[in-house]
Amino acid sequence: MPVNNTPRINSYQSPSSSVKVIPAEEIIVANIHPSLSVHYILHLFEKYNPISVSHMMMTPMSKIRYCHVYYETFQKAFATMQEFDTYCLCGENLIVLTKKRLIEEAVQL
């Protein structure tokens, strides 16, 4: 089955402006060293052209820092995950997974 890599764009007309909505593919980047910002994460992944990143968050119990990174295609998100999952950065091994993969791994624990 052929894969369509063309981004789907929906237009939304509000009274004040026109907004384009582009569905995005998401990865979760966790175990981020405290000295690193989301700007550094964007720089690290720039080869795969991320379109957006969330603010940095922290899990309540374990205090693991994480953020969400968004891509236009699943292929770019998956390639980032393959290259950077367990990548050692500032002495911490990054956890880079899709939401589905994160849930699958959590269930196995």
TrEMBL record:
Q: Which SUPFAM superfamilies match?
A: RNA-binding domain, RBD (SSF54928)
GO MF terms held by the record: nucleic acid binding
Matches recorded under InterPro entries: Nucleotide-bd_a/b_plait_sf, RBD_domain_sf
What is the protein name stated in its UniProt record? RRM domain-containing protein
Q: Which organism is it from?
A: Habropoda laboriosa
